[in-house]
Design brief:
single chain; 439 residues; mainly alpha; 20 helices; elongated
Length: 439
């Protein structure tokens, strides 16, 4: 077992009691927002990890479900992590309604709609029973929204329900019409797995029958299994062979169609109508046989007729496997299923918005560089202003320059005061100015 699998959250003795005490402390807490946000994240992760149901948790979270909330992406991530398949749909009804009203509605901004749709999609992936048919189709209609971020978020929700609960989708949202629909999901129903999916591919590639009973599968075996699944999926995809049709053949067919009337007149004159009728009857019989074959093909596609198809054996290529799967470190980026707030708040900006954001970032970086440069100069003891340098110089060095500056300032001040007095005299305000000077 890897060290990252030995998490403290999995080693708790009584997680239900700990979660209830933590949530009770959170409700009464008057600490800073960062502390309460951390407590909320821990409580949500604890519920999802141990499949806990804490009363009034979702009612407490609903008060923070509005777009203007501080750290709204972290709040939604904690909400998603707290959800699991054992949570009753009645517990999340008010939460889903709040997400639709406050986020996933057309009166909100595009970013808020994306937040709501991404959150609902993550909740539905963990508990598909939280949405009913009307809600699913209402959210699916947002795939025609004018903003591409909203449309892509709605399409991802539709694709999710095509896989898990296609019964709730309208016919226009289901996709391929020939696909079979499985039974609906029931609350509390667990899927029991008795073998690893695709283990027969690994047995064929390695030549070991019953490999699960022979030895314990290693990480390299699972990498091989993943590679074989990908190759089998590629082999199952239909490949259409296109044939080039020359233009001369089309013209010849057109000429033949144009001469059909003349041929009919010749047949009538020769008395061969009876033979033509017999040929048409034979064509009708062939068409009926062809319709029967088409019906059999349709039933076979639906799964009503079982016809085994030979499957080609997939060879294991080590070099190709390394190229497709990459290194060991990048295989499991999120082994525990934690929710990243950045993924929920993912929103691609427009070009104009990106330009403004880039300009603001550059201005901020420029200010930071300037501040670092000034701090560096001050630490070195250099970069002083002229006034500061004057204070540090001896008075004998500074006195002549100060005297020249004072004489220059005095002459400039005299000329300026004379001009001001003349201006006041012209405007009749000289007396008032003199009074102000005396005061």
């Amino acid at each position: 077992m890897c060290i990252r699998d030995r998490l403290p959250i999995d080693r708790l003795h009584n997680p239900q009691d700990f979660g209830e005490k933590l949530f009770a402390k959170l409700r009464k807490s008057t600490d800073r927002w960062e502390v309460r946000m951390t407590m909320l994240a821990v409580a949500g992760r604890l519920m999802g990890r141990h499949r806990l149901i804490i009363p009034n948790f979702y009612t407490y979270v609903n008060r923070y479900l509005h777009p203007g909330q501080r750290d709204i992406a972290r709040v939604l991530a904690a909400l998603v992590e707290s959800c699991h398949e054992l949570v009753p749909s009645e517990e999340l009804t008010a939460t889903v309604r709040a997400l639709i009203d406050n986020f996933a509605s057309e009166r909100n901004t595009e970013k808020a709609i994306c937040l709501g749709l991404n959150t609902i999609r993550e909740l539905a992936a963990k508990n598909p029973t939280i949405l009913d048919e009307f809600t699913v189709n209402y959210l699916a209609d947002l795939r025609l929204y004018r903003e591409r971020n909203v449309a892509s978020a709605a399409k991802s929700l539709v694709n999710l329900y095509r896989d898990i609960r296609p019964q709730l989708l309208a016919k226009k949202h289901r996709g391929m019409p020939g696909e079979t629909i499985s039974d609906d999901i029931v609350y509390g129903q667990l899927k029991v797995v008795d073998k690893i999916d695709g283990i027969e591919l690994l047995e064929e590639a390695t030549g070991i029958a019953g490999i699960m009973s022979e030895r314990v599968l290693t990480d390299q075996d699972f990498r091989k299994l993943k590679y074989l699944r990908m190759k089998a999926k590629e082999a199952e995809q239909p490949q259409e062979d296109w044939e080039d049709v020359e233009g001369g053949e089309d013209n010849e067919d057109g000429d033949e169609d144009g001469d059909e009337d003349g041929d009919m007149e010749d047949l009538e004159e020769l008395g061969e109508i009876e033979e033509l009728e017999e040929i048409e009857e034979e064509d009708q019989e062939n068409e009926e046989d062809g319709d029967d074959n088409a019906d059999q093909d349709k039933n076979r596609r639906k799964g009503n007729v079982s016809e085994p198809k030979p499957r080609k054996r997939i060879k294991l290529d080590e070099e190709e496997m390394e190229e497709m799967l990459g290194s060991e470190e990048s295989e499991d980026e999120n082994p525990h299923g934690w929710v990243d707030p950045e993924e929920i708040g993912k929103f691609k900006l427009k070009r104009s918005q990106m330009r403004g954001q880039i300009a603001a970032t550059k201005a901020k970086q420029k200010e930071e560089r300037k501040a670092r440069y000034l701090d560096k100069l001050q630490k070195k003891g250099s970069g002083l202003t002229n006034e500061e340098k004057k204070r540090l110089k001896p008075i004998s060095m500074v006195r002549p320059k100060l005297q020249r500056d004072s004489r220059h300032k005095q002459s400039r001040a005299k000329v300026k005061s004379i001009k001001r007095q003349l201006g006041h005299f012209k405007n009749g305000k000289l007396v008032n100015s003199l009074k102000r000077r005396k005061v």
